[in-house]
């Protein structure tokens, strides 16, 4: 079983999985995160100026480290989904999925066939032709996930219907986006937590993965008890900043004491 297929199997089985956003363009970051033991990483092409060539380079590192790479695409259409999957990403995360029609269009966009994803057997995701046409057609659905982001109160109200769309593998809540869409500035607001719980329950009710962005890893136990299985903790940049601040503070404390 390929590492991408294993990730898809685990996600669809609703096993707890830990990942982080990647916002740096150096492929070494992906390798480092893989060696650190993460279950997956999310390449943030929505909020970072990743080009299509950057996605391809980061996917090479993903394969080298056997770290499943999910690409958060900047838009639901255009070449982005095809680029990510042809490059060998383990799936896509799509922002602002607010209804079942959008979810159904995305399911077609990540699957080969009439009106869907264009097909080439020679791309990296198809092992550069080694699989052959029939082999890649058979393998692709087993190793490609679709995660829909729920980012406003209206989408929360439709979350269970979105999760019920065949081919949607999970829902993910970004508390900051949800707070802003609700007219709030604090993602810790109790109403945001309630909407996050509602979305997690909606995904679980349809047997789909419930995902959540968390800033504090200590909160994972709280959310795991509420059905969340897909955790995206911070980002590579945030992890580096936290480690730098902690190390600097410890060093300065040490020389001050001396």
From TrEMBL:
Keyword Metal-binding (UniProt): yes
GO MF term list: aldehyde-lyase activity; metal ion binding
Any one GO CC term of the record: cytoplasm
Ranges for domain HpcH/HpaI aldolase/citrate lyase: 19-242
Pfam family, one: HpcH_HpaI
Keywords, comma-separated and alphabetical: Lyase, Metal-binding
Matching Gene3D superfamilies: Phosphoenolpyruvate-binding domains
Assigned protein family: Belongs to the HpcH/HpaI aldolase family.
Stored PANTHER family: 2-KETO-3-DEOXY-L-RHAMNONATE ALDOLASE (PTHR30502), PHOSPHOENOLPYRUVATE CARBOXYLASE FAMILY PROTEIN (PTHR30502:SF0)
Name of the protein in its database record: 4-hydroxy-2-oxovalerate aldolase
Gene name of the encoded protein: garL
